[in-house]
Design goal:
Elements: H1 8-16, E1 21-26, H2 44-49, H3 66-82, E2 86-91, H4 94-102, H5 112-125, H6 127-137, H7 139-143, H8 150-163, H9 167-170, E3 185-187, H10 192-209, H11 211-221, H12 236-243, H13 249-272, E4 277-279, H14 286-296, H15 298-301
Parallel strand pairs: 1-2, 3-4
Length: 304
């Protein structure tokens, strides 16, 4: 586990040279087909060298949930082990890790009509206004959300409307289910300034590689809207605004970098509160340190 731009993928590939592992993606953006540049998805050559289950699972006009990830990940873990290889889960979508390790909350399913009504209100009142409403009915959830975090604000208000109970009250109740025996490892950059530089460099590289052109092609191929989960992903959300003419290319870059930094901050907050063995993401000799840890748990990693 680790924040965006912390070098997770590069480290995982180095470890793949030392162990017979397959890299199971734990990334809520890399599940979408065609969203390659903006998600830093491994290229074809890398994927031919090391298998990467759970990439390109659905089209960008489809929904993909934590519940589906949990099911897919459990199946992928079993499949990798059945072939005598080691499942190595790598990513930065902390909700997916939580769902896999702890099970799922007993929450009501999504309701398209409720979501459409909330989206309509947000288009008039703005998401900060709905965040203020959430703060009145569920202050615990509102306190951990940014006022512009439309997806999570919408879900929290939806749960309250459908269940009549705040999301924070329901999240403690978990549905029974299979829980895999995992060895959690967290890469936490101790040098925050270096992480910020890497975030800016990576976003610039995505723009240079054709992020905007990629989104244009996706819009031509699929029936996309800015409210779809895929188009709310960092980078694509800002590129969408640029294509709509509501922002400049310079603003696209600035907002994309700022949004990525905000994402990294949320990821780091979550990592500091979770049970895991922590390593400095930018420390020298990191692959060897991780290899030593994996070696100690190697036998358990192959157990069905």
């Amino acid at each position: 586990m680790g924040p965006t731009a912390s070098g997770k993928s590069a480290i995982a590939l180095e470890l793949a040279d030392r162990f017979p592992l397959e890299i199971i993606s734990v990334d809520s953006a890399q599940v979408y087909r065609g969203m390659d540049i903006g998600t830093a998805k491994p290229d074809a050559a890398t994927r031919s060298r090391v298998a990467h289950p759970l990439l390109d699972v659905v089209d960008p006009d489809e929904a993909y949930s934590a519940a589906r990830f949990r099911s897919d990940a459990l199946a992928a873990i079993k499949d990798v082990r059945s072939r005598g290889r080691m499942p190595f889960l790598v990513g930065g979508t902390m909700l997916y890790f939580k769902a896999l390790r702890e099970g799922l909350s007993s929450l009501p399913s999504a309701d398209p009509s409720v979501r459409a009504r909330l989206d309509s209100r947000a288009s008039i009142e703005g998401w900060p206004a709905l965040h203020a409403e959430l703060a009145r009915i569920d202050p615990v959830t509102a306190a951990r959300l940014e006022p512009a975090d439309s997806q999570r604000i919408q879900r929290a208000l939806e749960v309250y409307e459908l269940a009549g109970v705040p999301l924070s009250k329901l999240q403690g109740a978990r549905m029974a289910g299979e829980t895999p025996d995992l060895v959690p490892i967290a890469l936490v950059p101790f040098d925050r300034a270096l992480l910020h530089r890497r975030i800016a460099q990576r976003f610039d590289a995505m723009l240079a590689a054709g992020l905007v052109d990629e989104l244009m092609a996706l819009r031509q191929r699929y029936r996309l809207t800015p409210d779809l989960p895929s188009m709310r992903c960092v980078g694509y959300r800002q590129a969408w605004a640029f294509l709509e003419g509501t922002t400049t290319r310079e603003a696209l870059r600035e907002r994309g970098i700022a949004a990525t930094r905000q994402l990294a901050r949320r990821q780091l907050t979550w990592l500091r509160s979770t049970e895991a063995t922590l390593f400095d993401a930018f420390a020298s000799g990191l692959p060897a340190k991780l290899a030593s840890l994996i070696e100690r748990h190697r036998d358990a990693a192959f157990q069905m």
